[in-house]
Amino acid sequence: MKVTSSAVSLNVDDVSASSAFLVEHFGFREEMAADGFASLTRDDVGMNVIFLRRGLETLPADQRDEHTAGLILAFVVEDLEGELARLRSEGVAITMPLTDEEWGERAFQVRDPNGVIVQLVDWNAPTGR
Q: Comparing C-alpha atoms, which of 64, 56, 21 is closest to residue 37?
């Protein structure tokens, strides 16, 4: 198998709202869009984020009405505190405060208008662990 690209596809109620959130606050751009569909990318992410409208007829029946749940869209960033300050200044609600885990992960979370969790992370694990 040779993987040529990667994507995560999320079912949401309002595709435009989730798409606009990633464009406005996280620097994504819409690569493709249609009724009930948007594919977003950034040159530095290495994957696309796809939003599909719940109930979309093209989805298999057992997936059609599912809403994204239990998923964290995580992005590792270089300046975690700077990103936290920027998002606050843009009026984005921080839904999980900046936390430091014993294994070296530091992260905070926000939610998009459809409840999709976006987590920004940096790794400062002690050497030798």
A: 56
How far apart, in whole angstroms, are the C-alpha atoms of residue 114 and residue 14?
A: 7
Give the global pTM: 0.89
Tokens at residue 75, please?
């992005």
Beta strands at 105-111 and 117-123: parallel, antiparallel or unpaired? antiparallel
Compute φ and ψ for 85, nearest 5 degrees. -65, -40
How many residues are listed for the chain in this entry?
129
Q: Cα(11)–Cα(60) distance, rounded to whole angstroms?
A: 12
Other CB atoms within 10 A of residue 63 CB:
12
| CB neighbour list of residue 82: distance below 8 Å, 6 or more residues apart | none
The CA-based angle 5-84-10, given to 5 degrees, is: 35
- Looking at the predicted structure, is the pLDDT value of residue 126 above 80? no
User: Residue 89 phi/psi, 5° resolution?
Assistant: -65, -25
Q: Mean pLDDT throughout 11-26?
A: 97
